Amino acid sequence: MITLFWLLFVCVIYAYFLYPLLLIVVGKYRNNEILINDQEYELPSVTLLLPVHNESDVIEAKLSNIESLEYPDNLLKVILVSDGSTDNTVEIIKNYETDLNLKVIVIENQQGKANALNQGMNEVNSSIVVFTDASIMLDKQSIHKIVEPFSDNNVGCVSGEDHIPANQGGEGLYGKYELFLRNKESKIDSIVGASGSFYAQRTQLIKPFEEGLAPDFLSVLNTVNAGYRAITQPRAIGIMSASKSTSNEYNRKVRTLLRGMAALFSNLKLLNAFKYGWFSVFLFSHKLMRWLVPFFLLILLISNYFLIDQFVYKLLFSGQLLFYSLAIVALPQNSKLNNTVIGKIPLFFTIVNLAILKAWFLFFQGKRQEIWNPTKREEN
């Protein structure tokens, strides 16, 4: 029982602490950071592809944001796909048709995000496609910045960085942690996940999207499988707010995780480190190990209970109970702990791991997330 306890303890610590340390150490000896020469790089043609569903509360701000982007008009095309919107999203969009180089595709009955993306891809004739969501507001130089790494012919996919203010709950803190990992992975080899709200890919590498598979994750996997690198561009910035409620964040996580699991299990060959090197290590550590943490935690708590007669294990058991108690106390929106680090971190960590458990349950039931409902976020 003692061996089991410490084995599980090390697995949890590895997933969240030792893996980042591994990236830091490896990064000191292996640096494949892309060097960009702004003077010699010829700007590519770009399509900005934006799928939407009932986004009337943010679509006008998003279109104004697109209008402010600094990229040559003759090289930028915007394709907006409304996937069965039942509010006035389409009416708002049509007010901008003449002001933007905008192609609007209206799908009457909602068929899912993958179908919306595929419909949009049918109209693409540029060398680069930038995928974005309605909820993220892009820096005016963000298109310039996100296409710069494509000056290296080995780069096939580039992720932007979505910044959530750290004062907007645990999601903002967790976002900073994820960006740290992504930057380290990018400098060594390839990232294992792009920002679903803002990323770019070479058109030649884009395969038809499949319902139930995370589009952004699948784009990275397809890129690496084709022999190209997927990297992050810290200077391509988008700002987004945290989810409006804990339940919204939980449901979003379940959807994202379920799609991610389906995408990974469709590409298990990428876990072959003999062929894919460090990327396989990253994929195993950053994704699969993280997704196994809830099971580690559950068995850890149970095994800890059977060792409780020893002082050190009694202390560790009490620590676990305190951590989860803080999460419960911080759960109500009006909780004072909700706005403090000692409340935000336990709450978000617990929500994430409960979402992983729910996603595994749905995955093994054979269920897939096909219909798409964008997460409602706080107003900026």
Automatic annotation (TrEMBL):
<dbReference type="InterPro" id="IPR001173">
    <property type="entry name" value="Glyco_trans_2-like"/>
</dbReference>
<feature type="domain" description="Glycosyltransferase 2-like">
    <location>
        <begin position="48"/>
        <end position="179"/>
    </location>
</feature>
<feature type="transmembrane region" description="Helical">
    <location>
        <begin position="315"/>
        <end position="333"/>
    </location>
</feature>
<feature type="transmembrane region" description="Helical">
    <location>
        <begin position="291"/>
        <end position="308"/>
    </location>
</feature>
<dbReference type="InterPro" id="IPR029044">
    <property type="entry name" value="Nucleotide-diphossugar_trans"/>
</dbReference>
<keyword id="KW-0808">Transferase</keyword>
<keyword id="KW-0812">Transmembrane</keyword>
<protein>
    <submittedName>
        <fullName>Poly-beta-1,6-N-acetyl-D-glucosamine synthase</fullName>
        <ecNumber>2.4.1.-</ecNumber>
    </submittedName>
</protein>
<keyword id="KW-0328">Glycosyltransferase</keyword>
<feature type="transmembrane region" description="Helical">
    <location>
        <begin position="345"/>
        <end position="364"/>
    </location>
</feature>
<feature type="transmembrane region" description="Helical">
    <location>
        <begin position="257"/>
        <end position="279"/>
    </location>
</feature>
<comment type="similarity">
    <text>Belongs to the glycosyltransferase 2 family.</text>
</comment>
<dbReference type="Pfam" id="PF00535">
    <property type="entry name" value="Glycos_transf_2"/>
</dbReference>
<keyword id="KW-0472">Membrane</keyword>
<dbReference type="GO" id="GO:0016757">
    <property type="term" value="F:glycosyltransferase activity"/>
</dbReference>
<feature type="transmembrane region" description="Helical">
    <location>
        <begin position="6"/>
        <end position="26"/>
    </location>
</feature>
<keyword id="KW-1133">Transmembrane helix</keyword>
